[in-house]
Every structure is written in C-alpha cells, then in structure tokens.
Write a structure and sequence with these properties.
332 residues; alpha/beta; 3 domains; seven-stranded mixed sheet; three-stranded antiparallel sheet; 23% strand
Length: 332
C-alpha cells in the first residue's frame, strides 16, 4: 500500500469488520508497528477497535490498550436478553454491561451501539432502555434503526411474518424520541445515527462522511486514495485465504483500483456529507464538479426539508426523517 500512497500522516486507524477483538493483542501491536514503519503515526492518532461484548474478548482489553488501541466501540445492540436472541447475538445484557465496565477501566474513549425499532418494541420500552443506556455512556453512542436488507436472514423471517417491525409512524416516533433524549443528555447527533459530546466524535468515521482519503487493508476492505492527483477506489480480495495468498506472493491483497470520475467523487460526497448534522459544504461540492438543481433545493427548503446557511446545505429535523429520499432528490 505504501508504494501507492508514498509518505502519509495517519490521522486515525480503525480495526473493524468481523470480530477484530478476537485476534490476540500481540497481533494488533504487530499491525500498528507495521503501519508506523510505513507512514507517520502521531501520539494523538485515534486508534479504534470494534469489539463484541463477551467475556472472552473483554479480558483482552488491557492487552489491546498496551498494544496502542486508545478507543473501543462495543457492539452491545440491546440491553434486553430476549431481543438479543431475536437479533442473533451470542452475548447477554449482563455480559455486555460487564464488558462496558471493563472497557471504561481501560480506555478513556469508549463507544457502544444499540439497535432500535426492533420487533414488538414500544415507545415506552425504548424510552426506558435508552434512558438506562445514557446513564452508562462515556461520551459517544451509535444508535441505529433496524432495517430489513434484501437477501438477509432478517428479510426471510420478515417475509414469513416471523419478524414484525414497527410501522413507519412508530419508527418516526422512536427516532424523534432518540433525538430528544440524547440531546437532553448532552449527546446530540453529529451524524444521522451517531451521538457524541463535543470532542468525542469518531474522527475516523468523519473521514468517510466528509469525503476524505482512507486506505482499506484486509480481506474485503475498500479505500479511497488520491494517487498522482487522481482519486481511486481501491478494493481488496474478499476471501481471506485469497487475500492472504496474494499478500504472500505479491505483497498486497488489492484486487482493483479504479479511477473515479469527477461525477463519482461529487456524488459520494453528497451521499455521505448530507448524513452529517453540519451538512454539505456547497463550495466544496462545486469544486468537486457537483451540480445541484437549485430549483429542487428551493422547493425542499420551502417544504422545510433542508436549510441553506451561507455555504452549508443541511437537512432539517423533518428532512432527516426521510434522509434517503431527500438525498435521492438532491442527487437527481
């Protein structure tokens, strides 16, 4: 990868996808050491590890901290054991809470996620659970609405009527309650599904949402890098054995790196930046070659869906309720 990028300063490192916390801490240390030998890593570089909240993984937190990890993101997903089973999770709520306590003892920066709009979940249920979670938070939480993706086990269960999710009206109420409680606790949304105290935002994910550069390393990883003045989409081989074999034989698991057109770059920026509470920088969008239909923007502003403030285009609270449709309209 260094052959493609040349010297770079690393702002953040994120161990994610799959179950990275199952690897031995010494492996994490070796990876971080190799990164530091190839690029410049400063003492304040954000280094995040995603972890499942099980006792097996939590016992390694001290080792991960010694390896250099300084931020942990726990996949708690629910504080209700019955719902964890429905979601197919192997941990219990007690295990999750224990892992959270251990994480807080070892790391200054800890985040955890929850899924809401779960089957049979009421507004009162979510109020009680989120209120409890907000008392446990350490400055950052990711709160995702459950969505049914085609081709997944959830979709099959949903089609057979065995997974009944809240209707649109209840889902809207759940979202609005989420914003109300989080803002009241000092954790406003800085992205559609992410909440943080000022200064606790995930720096790594902000790179994605603001159209920055990132190197994807590992099986199935994707990246966006500017090479010789050209933005390239880089993808690695998906199957771990294929990726490892190519790394051994060629020094890299990269499968392809394609040149992105100006239109592609601008569209990606629009799709990601509109997720942010700060919205999209119109000057940057124009510099990337993006063109908005300002009649559409004016219509959406009149309808109370977007707000134009100087050089920022931002989704209003009503617009964020239908963000995917809003972005589709803006993209034309």
């Amino acid at each position: 990868m260094k052959e493609l990028t040349g010297p770079r300063d690393v702002a953040s490192i994120f161990f994610g996808g799959g179950t990275p916390s199952l690897m031995p801490p010494k492996t994490t240390a070796a990876i971080l050491d190799r990164i530091a030998k190839n690029w410049s890593v400063s003492p304040d570089t954000e280094i995040t590890l995603e972890a499942n909240p099980t006792s097996v993984e939590a016992k390694n937190f001290k080792g991960f901290k010694a390896a250099g990890v300084n931020r942990v993101s726990l996949g708690v997903q629910s504080l209700n054991d019955a719902d964890l089973k429905v979601l197919g999770r192997l941990h219990t709520s007690d295990e999750a809470l224990k892992a959270l306590r251990i994480a807080k003892r070892n790391f200054d920066r800890v985040s955890f996620d929850l899924i809401y709009a779960r089957p049979k979940q009421s507004l009162a249920d979510w109020r009680k659970e989120l209120t409890r979670a907000l008392k446990l938070q350490a400055g950052h939480m990711s709160l995702y609405q459950l969505t049914i993706e085609a081709g997944t086990p959830y979709a099959a269960l949903h089609e057979r009527g065995k997974l009944v999710c809240p209707d649109d009206e209840l889902a809207r109420d759940l979202y609005e309650l989420t914003q109300e409680l989080c803002e009241g606790a000092g954790l406003p949304a800085y992205e559609i599904s992410n909440h943080a105290r000022a200064g606790e935002e995930c720096r790594h994910n902000i790179v994605y949402w603001t159209g920055g550069e990132y190197a994807g390393i590992g099986p199935g990883a994707h990246g966006r890098l500017d090479i010789d003045g050209v933005r390239r989409a880089i993808s690695c081989l998906y199957a771990p054995e294929d990726w490892a074999g190519q790394v051994e034989s060629h020094g890299s698991g990269i499968e392809s790196h394609e040149r992105l057109s100006a239109g592609d770059i601008a569209e990606e920026y629009l799709l990601m930046a509109m997720r942010l509470s700060d919205g999209m920088n119109l000057e940057r969008y124009a510099a990337l070659g993006g063109q908005l239909d300002y009649q559409t923007v004016a219509m959406l502003e009149t309808d109370g869906m977007v707000r134009v403030n100087d050089i920022l285009l931002t989704a209003t609270p009503n617009g964020r309720l239908v963000l995917n449709s809003l972005i589709a309209e803006l993209a034309g």
